[in-house]
Amino acid sequence: MSKSKTRVLIAIAMLSSISFVLMLLAFPLPALPAYLKVDFSDIPALIAAITMGPIAGILVALLKNVLDWLFSGSPTGVPVGHMANFVTSLLFLTPVYLVYRKVSTSKGLSFGLVIGTISMAIGMGLLNYYVFLPMYAYFLNFPMESGSALVKSVIFGILPFNLIKGILVTIVMIVLFKRMKPFLDKVTASFQVPKIN
Predict the structure, then answer these.
(1) Other CB atoms within 10 A of residue 104 CB
(2) Which single residue of 18, 129, 160, 176 has CA 20 to 30 Å from 8?
(3) CA-CA distances (angstroms) from residue 174 to 60, 66, 76, 104, 159?
(4) What is the mean pLDDT of residues 96-114?
């Protein structure tokens, strides 16, 4: 394995570790269900994606969830929450990368983050309704909300939560990006040869 590929793997491992630590610092939002918690663990995955390519970002998002599952476990015995978190990261990360690849400026990043927030909010609303909430009900063996009650849980719980989370992550990412842009450009240039696409 070349030194450049080794550097990429080391960078992914480091960003995954940072992402995992940030995941442990999750906090709930007032007036929303307590099981919905905001964290900033997608920021290292975003940095990985814009500097080393989308696969690097996906790997960071995957590894942080594997580490958290191994460290914290899952109340269902099946990592439903970690699977949902991983999909959430993909829905957020992908639009940001695609837009930033075309417009590698703070405006491009900001626009990508807005699109990513909308993608995450709508995508997770639908996926929770059809996939993740039914999975939780099945593995925890309790009656699931149905009909209008389930719709209300999604519209007044999951949807606003993901919008707020996306806004908070966007603000932090933009502030970091403006401060770190020269450094990120150097890192991106250093990873051009082994870039993971």
Answers:
(1) 15
(2) 176
(3) 20, 27, 36, 13, 22
(4) 94
Question: Given this model, what pLDDT does residue 194 score?
Answer: 46
Sign of the CA dihedral 145, 66, 165, 197? negative
Question: Is residue 174 in a domain?
Answer: yes
Residue 196 lies in a domain: no
Contact 135, 74 (CB under 8 A): no
What one-letter code names the amino acid at 2?
S
In a domain, 161, yes or no: yes
Question: Beta-carbon neighbour count of residue 56 at 10 Å?
Answer: 27
Number of domains within the chain: 1
What pLDDT band is residue 165 in, cutting at 50, 70 and 90?
very high
The enclosing H or E element of 42 equals helix 42-52
Spatial distance between the Cα atoms of 122 and 44, rounded to a whole number of angstroms: 23
Distance from the first to the final alpha carbon of the chain:
18
Domain that holds residue 12: 3-26+35-190
Q: Which CATH number goes with the domain that contains 145?
A: 1.10.1760.20
Q: Is residue 134 part of a domain?
A: yes
Distances in Å between the Cα of 190 and the Cα atoms of 5, 7, 186, 193 are 11, 10, 6, 8
